Amino acid sequence: MKTILGVILLVVLVAGGYWLWAGHQPQSAQPGAAANQDARALSGAEQAVFVPLVCGGASAGSDGFAHNCTSLPGYPSNDYGGDGLGLGISLTSVVTGHLSSATGTEAYVSYQGSFESHANNFGGGILFAANAAGGWTLEKWFPGETMDGCLSLNPQGRAELLCLRGFTGQGETDTVLGIWTPGVQDFTNVIDASDLRETMDPEANCGLRKSASQDVLLGIDGIARSGAGYAAAIEYVPASLAEAACKAKNFANAPVTKTTLVLSWDGSKMALPQSFNFAPGS
Q: Would you kindly state where each structural domain of the chain is located, as residue ranges?
């Protein structure tokens, strides 16, 4: 009986030890699985691994942040934004894959931080690389480069992702859908939207139109996978309505249409539906 109990205890200890070890390892793709993944929420085990690498003296957070820090290891500025707002941080999402090369195993973790300014959209991203010891090494902070909600475009090789970024200030709301190449932070715009109706000049969108045939794209509300392609939820004013509203100097009250753009990726560029002719954003 003692022998049987000893074997059971040994199995439990080994299994428990493996679970703890596995929870702290870089997530590797199974054979045939995609190496480059969509952005997703971090697991509890990932939070436990990444937080100590970027948040010195981590403790329970306050003011809406998950953690409070006494220092930010590796952050590119000693004044942490210079705003004196404390060092609250929340890790919001992670992208894993071959981010800065076609073969390396890396993670890009987006964050929100009390130390980041409005100009940085109150957050940014942090690049980590898998190391020989089976853990992660902090590579670089990218203030302002939050990449929540990105969708992977290629399963293998150097990662490319379809991402949506936005910024609001002084009544202006801008959103940009683009292709992001992690590690070097190249971001190639696919479409950009500007909603200027609540600025000092509510007719400002009219000045961006170059012809009567141009629609006005006010916002990109989200992106998702759609069959073999990608879908972007948008809000816009069709060309005919925009033209009439601009002539009447009443663009702020122009009827807005909501629809979904279905986009296709051929491995090098993103194709938009031919039925739209959007004016450029601001």
A: 36-151, 160-282
